[in-house]
Design a protein that fits this description.
22 helices, alpha/beta, about 15% strand
Length: about 625
């Protein structure tokens, strides 16, 4: 029986349909015989049986056609109930009708009741055959070799090579692949089936999968994290791909799989709680997420869909990122009946942005579009100012003109007493929001500020992962540098919660615990990969840590707030504070100067003017209590 399992699991979707169709055709003869027996009240109906044989060939052809048209051969045996039984009933009625028509054409002397009995007999035999096949499959799976049953998420080159390696381990059974590529789904790959990524729950239960191994190294950390969390909720362990250093040692591959960490590097518990009253601000609304293809923007899109908006507009200037997130969101939106609108373009294009707001009647804006990499913006300051400052101004104007209900600006701890051009542009964007909040009567403007997001593109965790996977060294700016960390799920929830209860002009921050030593994070990640740190105390270690020194614009320690003194708690884990802002005249003057320098290509003068504006805002402001 064990030798049958690989054959069964390697069957493609088309082969399985063909088998079910053949079974349906073969059932025609016993169904006819049973009908004659019941009508003639005899085990050997004799002359009637010979007459009905003329009906058999055309009825077999009709059975194959009706089986295909009714979808009876398309059902999955693992879920043969409800709708699947209904398809069997439809098939039986169709074949009964076909027998009546063919009997009339062939001028056979058969009573009308015969065709009714034939349809009923065929239905019973069809259901019994399906149940028998399910029993056989269960027996095959139950008698399969004991040990760990593994499914691989990713049917690409990496997954294929891993499947071959795992087959050398007698204690492991690879049952198949999951993959999000529709061109691979339903195919047989290295002799194993490839299933849809969305079917993990059903397949893992049906095939008694113990572990799912993620073999999608080119996929972003955020996406892998989301996949891992979804599968882990079903009680199935998720493990990550081994590093090259681990693969080449003497142990078996299966022994080197390490549990996939989702929030292991926080140094605190993850703060996650579903929205309560705030959810009403997103339900049945039109939500626009700028930068919706990015790490935070895409997570905002996923989470906001849970609160059933009417329409979700995903705005991004990167075609590939927009294409990728749209494909993911469409499956989720179909369940709740929400409309997904991908919009390709730049937030700096005033006419384009205004047309989007006018066309779709936007209710809520979640502004996550920004150039965020410190070093790149330091080297390209005019682009950073143009996108982060002028782009935010364009969105603000469009939101005010359209009468948007709420506007939430996603900001960063690097905006607090900024030492970099990127931080200064984000602080200036905050000042734009605070200025507009003071003057806006219809739109509620607020700011959400947080530290480093684990796993976001270009952040320290995925960079460390790549360096560890390649054998090192891990590049560290300073042994004493610290950062605040949060998960992308926490960041998105904070934005949504703030957008729900903001009154206007607040800056929201999350209780992120104590800042983490990045050097400690690097060592923990090296050890979690099954390696050791190579240093003076351990010269035979696997991975070395190189200290490079702080890059231009980087700070030794980040801060979350400008204000001194107590910050008033609005939520158990969320704080809100009001900070001083520039006047409308000061903002207009600063924008005019920046525009002149940017349009003139005067990078140094633009940076100098930008830093002058934000440096005047570094003086602490007193936090104010708010109730409600």
């Amino acid at each position: 029986m064990n030798s049958v399992l690989p054959v069964v699991t390697a069957l493609t979707r088309g082969q399985k349909r063909a088998i079910l169709t053949i079974v349906d055709v073969l059932l025609v003869m016993p169904a006819l015989y049973l009908s004659l027996v019941l009508q003639a009240n005899s085990v050997l109906p004799g002359k009637m049986l010979a007459e009905v044989l003329w009906l058999l060939p055309p009825l077999a052809v009709a059975a194959a056609a009706v089986s295909a048209l009714s979808g009876a051969a398309h059902v999955r045996l693992g879920s043969f109930e409800g709708a699947a039984v209904g398809k069997s009933a439809t098939l039986s009625i169709g074949i009964g009708f076909a027998s009546a028509v063919l009997a009339g054409v062939l001028q056979l002397n058969l009573a009308l009741g015969f065709h009714f009995i034939f349809a009923l007999s065929f239905f019973l035999l069809n259901v019994i055959s399906r149940l028998a096949m399910i029993a056989v499959l269960v027996r095959i799976y139950n008698t399969a070799p004991s040990g760990r049953r593994i499914a691989i998420y990713g049917a690409g080159k990496t997954g294929s090579q891993l499947a071959v390696a795992l087959r050398q381990d007698r204690d492991v059974t690879v049952v198949g692949f999951f993959d999000d590529d529709m061109s691979l789904q339903g195919m047989s790959h290295t002799g194993l089936p490839v299933w849809r990524g969305q079917d993990t729950t059903r397949i893992c239960a049906a095939f008694r999968v113990d572990e799912v191994l993620l073999a999608v190294p080119s996929t972003s950390y955020t996406r892998r994290n989301a996949i891992a969390q979804r599968i882990e909720k079903e009680g199935v362990e998720v493990k990550s791909l081994p590093t090259f250093m681990q693969l080449i040692d003497s142990r078996g591959v299966a022994d080197k799989l390490v549990s996939f960490p989702t929030s292991a590097w926080l140094g605190r518990e993850q703060h996650m709680r579903a929205l309560a009253a705030e959810a009403a601000e997103y339900s049945s609304r039109t939500i626009l997420v700028s930068g919706g293809g990015g790490s935070i923007g895409s997570e905002l899109c996923r989470q906001v869909l849970a609160y059933r908006p009417d329409r979700l507009i995903v705005l991004d200037n990167c075609e590939f990122s927009l294409f990728r997130i749209e494909r993911e969101l469409l499956a989720m939106a179909e369940v709740i009946g929400a409309e997904i609108v991908p919009v390709l373009g730049s937030i700096t294009d005033q006419g384009f942005v205004a047309s989007v707001f006018e066309r779709f009647s936007v209710d809520v804006v979640l502004h996550a579009a920004a150039y965020k990499h410190v070093t790149l913006v330091e080297q390209n300051p005019l682009a950073g100012i143009h996108n982060n400052v002028f782009g935010t101004k364009v969105l603000i104007k469009a939101a005010v003109d359209a009468g948007v209900r709420r506007f939430v600006q996603v900001s960063t701890d690097k905006a607090v007493r900024p030492a970099s051009v990127m931080g200064a542009t984000k602080r200036f964007a905050e000042l734009l929001i605070l200025d507009q909040a003071a003057r806006s009567s219809e739109t509620v403007f607020s700011i959400v500020r947080f530290g480093n997001v684990l796993g976001s593109s270009g952040s320290v965790v995925p960079i460390f992962r790549e360096q560890i996977a390649s054998g090192g060294p891990v590049m560290l700016t300073d042994e004493n540098v610290t950062r605040y960390f949060m998960t992308v799920q926490e960041a998105a929830q904070l934005v949504l919660r703030a957008g729900g209860f903001a009154r206007g002009g607040e800056v929201f921050v999350l209780d992120m615990g104590e800042p983490v030593l990045v050097s400690d994070l690097a060592r923990q990640m090296i050890e979690s990969a099954g390696c050791t740190v190579r240093d003076q105390a351990n010269p035979e270690g696997d991975i070395e840590i190189h200290v490079t020194g702080l890059r231009p614009g980087e700070k030794m320690h980040e801060e979350l707030v400008i204000s001194e003194g107590d910050i008033i708690t609005r939520d158990e884990k969320i704080f809100r504070v009001r900070e001083d802002a520039l006047s409308e005249i000061e903002i207009a003057a600063a924008m005019k100067v920046l525009r002149q320098h940017v349009d003139g290509g005067e990078a140094d003068a633009a940076v100098s003017a930008l830093m002058q504006v934000v440096s005047d805002q570094n003086k602490p402001a007193t936090a104010q209590s708010e109730t409600g």
